[in-house]
Fold this protein.
Amino acid sequence: MSDARGYRNGVLRRADMRDTKVGSEEKDDAAMVARMGFEAMMKGEGDIVTGLKNKIQSAVAIVTPAELLAKQHRKKAEPGTAKS
């Protein structure tokens, strides 16, 4: 188990979210995300979104009403929604 995976598991455990869809979904590789974030920072970029799925979700979120985004997140963060 990598340090990053252990960290994420700890965060999810403390948030009591391990049995949620958010907590059980596959995560991007932490080292890759850190590297891309560092490279963006060194270029003076304000933010970066890694991974195709995240880029699509980020683009859609810009035009989606906040109330709908909150409902979608609630469905993924409810206890018992993890894949069995």
About this structure: Helices lie at 3-14, 21-24, 30-42, 52-63, 66-77. The chain has a mean pLDDT of 85. Residues 40 and 48 are 7 Å apart (CA to CA).
